[in-house]
Design goal:
Helix content: 25-40%
CATH architecture of the largest domain: 3-Layer(aba) Sandwich
Order of helices and strands: EHEHEEEHEHEHEEHEHEEHEHEHHH
Distance between the termini: 12 Å
Number of domains: 2
């Protein structure tokens, strides 16, 4: 038995990253995480109790563009039904006092049926992957999603703004570091201006690595390049480019760097802003969530074709860190919802 079961979507690493940030504050609460793919390794590296239970369908991306979104949505729906059975068995075994879900909606449905308090952590309140006939199916799914959201005791949104109903906007949820930027630069051997290219926990960012590597010889800048290629794209990208593969402390590497080039995942964007590191955020074309994230910072998919100019511009930008206490605020909400034993 545990106090809180955390069900974390294994699509990418952004969900796991912000759940880690919240868990840093939950010292006196017993936790167990349930997820899949690379997120399992991330939680395990941080010494957390985690089980590998999910294998969700991954997005199909070619040249930075999302392919067959309706096909993916259908696969997701079918697996969602399997996830309900997985989470049912977990909740019957663990008997938690609270269910927290980071965009794993199956566990919320099961928890709500068992009358266990439920908390959802999410960037989105509806999806917009499809057009035409496919949008009719997606609208029906969104209607069901809205019902799940309305039944949650609380929905935590990692954005700024006013609360309404059961929606609580806590601001960016990011991991903290105990080290200064100077100490981190020494730790990572960042001896001169350093640009970090990060593509998350899937192979969807291959196009971003390839386009950036093409641009590097044309820059004529005395800078170092470091690629965080993740578990699926590690390779030899040139003699003057360090590829660190998978890392469990991307927030510290972002803090130590002078510029981050990344897909437009919210967690990476939030960590860059929290630590004041200038960023270039290129969305996967057709991925509505990434396109929305990128648009807020003035970026779109086609900016991939003007990386040279963007890099030169951003390298001269001053650091401007923003306050990010969303993890602590989210922790307080979760703690307040824990029923008495």
């Amino acid at each position: 038995m545990v106090d809180v079961t955390f069900f974390c979507s294994p699509i990418g690493l952004g969900h796991a990253t912000r759940d880690l940030a919240i868990s840093q504050h939950l010292d006196n609460v017993s936790l167990k995480f349930f997820t899949g793919s690379t997120a399992v390794k991330l939680f395990a590296d941080w010494g957390l109790d985690v089980e590998d239970v999910y294998k969700l369908p991954q997005f199909e991306v070619h040249s930075g563009q999302l392919q067959n979104p309706l096909k993916w949505l259908w696969k997701y729906y079918k697996y969602y039904k399997e996830c309900k059975e997985i989470s049912r068995k977990i909740l019957e075994k663990q008997k938690p006092r609270l269910v927290v879900s980071d965009e794993d909606f199956a566990s919320l449905v099961v928890g709500q049926k068992k009358e266990i308090p439920t908390v959802l952590i999410t960037d989105i309140l509806e999806t917009r992957f499809t057009k035409g006939f496919g949008s009719f199916i997606e609208k029906k799914m969104n209607k069901s999603l809205k019902g799940i959201i309305n039944k949650c005791n609380c929905v935590i949104l990692p954005e700024t703004g006013h609360d309404e109903g059961n929606l609580r906007r806590v601001g960016p949820i990011v991991r903290k570091t105990q080290f200064s930027r100077v100490a981190l630069r020494e730790k990572f051997s960042f001896d001169k201006k350093t640009i970090v290219i990060s593509v998350g926990g899937t192979d969807a960012g291959r196009f971003l690595i390839e386009k950036t590597v093409e641009v590097i010889p044309k820059l004529n800048e005395d800078v170092d390049f470091v690629i965080i290629s993740g578990p699926f794209l590690k390779g030899n990208y040139g003699d003057h480019i360090r590829d660190l593969g998978f890392v469990n402390n991307l927030h510290e590497i972002i803090y130590a760097s002078d510029l981050v080039i990344s897909l437009a995942g919210k967690s990476t964007i939030d960590e860059a802003k929290a630590y004041g590191t200038p960023g270039i955020f290129i969305p996967i074309k057709g991925h509505f969530e990434q396109e929305d994230n990128a648009k807020k910072d003035g970026y779109a998919y086609n900016d991939i074709f003007r990386l040279k100019d963007l890099i030169k511009e951003k390298l001269s930008e001053k650091r401007n860190p923003v306050n990010a206490d969303g993890a602590e605020r989210a922790f307080k909400i979760i703690q307040s919802l824990l029923p008495e034993n």
